[in-house]
């Protein structure tokens, strides 16, 4: 898990986050981000967790694996108690 940026290091309009990178053979295939707090935009359309997998690595279960690892990281914390909903984006 990446290091947490201090609040002073977070650019205006952004929120502090932790990242997990999906890497295979030194090649980055995707990432999952855990946003430690939400701004108005993220509260409406983003949420605490975001992820991406590059097209050539999709349909291998990588996002599900990374999401499971991210959820394990926040289990028992305030983030682990946040509401859960899914929006399919293709």
UniProtKB/TrEMBL annotation:
Pfam families in the cross-refs: Acetyltransf_1
Recorded GO MF terms: acyltransferase activity, transferring groups other than amino-acyl groups
PANTHER family listed in its UniProt record: ACETYLTRANSFERASE
Gene3D superfamilies: 3.40.630.30
Descriptive protein name: N-acetyltransferase domain-containing protein
InterPro entries membership: Acyl_CoA_acyltransferase, GNAT_dom
N-acetyltransferase domain segment(s): 21-77
